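@channel anyone free to eyeball this complex?
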Amino acid sequence: MEDSAIIQLYWDRDERAVSATAERYGGYCTAIALNILGSREDAEECVSDTFLRAWNSIPPHRPAVLSAFLGKITRNLSLNRYRRNTAAKRGGGEITLALDELAECVPGGTPPDRELEHRDLVRAIDEFLSRLRPVERAMFVCRYWYFDGIGDISARFAKSENSVSVSLHRTRLKLHDFLTKRGFFE
Amino acid sequence: MNKQNFCDIFGEIDERYIVEAHAIHASAKHTVQTRRWFAAAACLCVLTVFAAFAVPLVSRTLPGGAQPHIDEPFFSTPATTGAPSVTPSDAPVPADRIAVNRPDELVSADIDCYTLHPEPTPDGQLAELDGFSENTGIDYRQFLSVFPERWTQRGAYMLFAPAALGADGEKEYRLHDYVFGFDTEGGGSITVSLCTFEAPLRDTYIMCDDPEPSEIGGATAYIYSDGVYFVAQFEAGALYFDLSGDALALDELTGLISSLVTLAAE
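replying in thread with the prediction:
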């Protein structure tokens, strides 16, 4: 079923929307949750919560890109659960390593506490991404948005793991420099 | 800020990049499984078309549907004269260093875009693309004069891609690329795309470890070829260019790049 038809089911409050979403995007959402949580049981719960969240937010929301909309919900829910699990000292998937790597991009200082600054930072990251070569950008997003393992990225992009690691490292340093030059977190 | 705050903020990046990365997932898997470069079918998700396709968007890919003759000489059409004729001033091409990279892999991806073709003028000529001169800073006629007269202009169009979600949650598209297609006298074709803020969109990504750059006319360009088809990407002035096609002599390609670099820098 096409995305537009699935979204229409949500708008019609037709419960088949959930099964259609699960059929089309269940695997996609589970992969994201599994990367973050490393536990199939936790991942499946997050995916179920994703569908519930989608049911509660459409309408009034009408997602432009359903996959990205669901992926964002799954990512957020999974990250929240990951934090709870970490506090309880259990679980954790690929994200543990990816977060340590991502620390290289983060300049010191306090987090942006105002909505405007938050949006500025997202915009700056978008601008940085727009300047990358597409493959470089896709690998970076695979690693730090989807939390794909280095081995997975290596296979998908037909590159050696070393080549992927080097590319990600360079991009992290470039992002760090870019944000520092833009004056974030001084 | 700690890494977890940053991770949350990174989660809000433009949906276009999220979709792009996912599209490469699926396509790359397929390509690796088949191990055939040129089986990677270019597939565009053209959402809206306002006019007939004078130039199929798929022509921007490297390669097209046909299997290339890899054993044929590289850049199969020789230049018709010694110096590239594509430089309006006939100035020598300052090709300091040319490197042609062979792609390791080509990965196709669905991209979310639509194209807009201008209506032809009453005399059947191709009309100027809206806002070209204002947006690029290049006079339209001057831009077209860079291309050899012996080439036939196949068409031109504008390509729009999602930029952001509007206040009502609807996807908003913005102009991304101006695209021009030409047929060369040697039976080849070339497509020139330019964008004012980032590299023009492609529906086929070129996988190449550490490609060697070329220095052409003072700009750094990356040239890729499998032996017949080519892609050249470079930045000049405030513009980003993407050239692709086949059956073009290397000196014609570098001459064209040099001319575009000169024009963009003016």
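from a first look: Chain B has one domain: 3-265.
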